[in-house]
Predict the structure.
Amino acid sequence: MPDGAAPSSAAPSSAARSPHADDLPAQSHPPRDPWSIATLDLDAYLSRVGLAGAGASEGADNAQLRPSGDTLAKLHAVHLAAFPFENLDIMLGRGVKVDLDSIQAKLVGGRRGGYCFEHGQLLGAVLERLGFGVERLLARVWRPDMVGPRTHLTLRVTAGDQRWLADVGFGSSPAGPVPLDASGPWEISGWTYDIAPGDHPGTWQLRELQAGNWVTLYTVEEACVHPIDIAMSNHFTSTYPDSWFTHVRIVTRRDPDAIRSLLGRTYTVTRPGHVKERRDLTDAEWVKTLADDFGLTFSARDHERLAATADGI
């Protein structure tokens, strides 16, 4: 443009278009249902957790499951009672699928358990269908030796002007929702939790009081989470050689008064105050405990394969 000439207001000519413009894919809008909430079989889920019939009328019109703190606490409790935390498909070489249809087929239809990406997405879909506000958040599980990756899925749930951390997929999950706007530590069935600022802007921590000391369980980062982020985190967690989920059998059941866990062949019961009882199991005892205490049964061939896996971290 010559010095002093006014810029032209005319529309650019067709000659100004990129010669490859027609080869570019059309821009698509974000999916209206990115978490596939519409595919949830709510009645099947409610039947699986012992609330059959409660989903006949969804959302705020259903007085039994109207969005509230009481409803969230009820769903949190029955979910933990129905679905154990476990990584046994990874140990069997089957991997983990984290689309909602696969999660429903495994946990609800197959009467199995899963880990955070499965638990969090399933409960999140249920809560959204019932009218709660749900934000999926990724967190870094605390490690003493390094900053870990963002490989834990948890939920921030809202109803009205109240907000909670709802986490049913941590293994040693809180026994109930933790209010995010509480003025101090919060006790649930003898277990005490606290929400504390993180070490960096835009982060915060879930802490638990263990034997008189505050222990950070994980650090949440305030960043928008998309389904592809869950797929990436799940791939890392279920395949990375240094991920402990790839080389030790983990099964956990969260009861209100205890955390029962199988780590390898070691059976541990942890009670409030972080009091632990431990014993090692034989292969036969492991199979019986898996069925009796965790409600999980496998074929004889699968048990042989699981018995051949590592017994510890």
